[in-house]
Amino acid sequence: MTFDPMLILILLACAAVVLVLGTGMGGFAKGDGWASKNSNKLMRMRIIAQFVAVVLIVIAVLWRQSGG
């Protein structure tokens, strides 16, 4: 298998989504005021990370289809 930097970027973006989502869920599970203070920030970070991951996946699929 050859080294694919796009795959590494996609995996890092997906890991970022999981990390932010896990942090948010952990904060809510704790039940203290931290979750209420940071929930909107974490939601925005998750949406941005998901957007980046999806864009990278679409670019990779289009690049593979074009023969790259």
Feature tags:
68 residues, mainly alpha
Note the topology.
Layout: H1 5-30, H2 33-65
Describe it.
Residues 1-68 form the HIG1 domain. The chain crosses the membrane at residues 45-63. The chain has 68 residues and is mainly alpha-helical. The chain has helices at 5-30, 33-65. Helix 1 (5-30) runs antiparallel to helix 2. The longest helix has 33 residues, at 33-65. It is elongated.
Integer average pLDDT: 88
What is the number of helical segments per DSSP (H or I, 4+ residues)? 2
Extract low-pLDDT stretches.
Answer: none
Q: How many DSSP-defined strands?
A: 0
Structural class: mainly alpha
Task: Specify the overall morphology.
Answer: elongated
The end-to-end distance, rounded to whole angstroms, is: 16 Å
SSE pattern, N- to C-terminal: HH
Task: Provide a quick synopsis of the model.
This protein has 68 residues and is mainly alpha-helical. The chain is built from two helices and no strands.
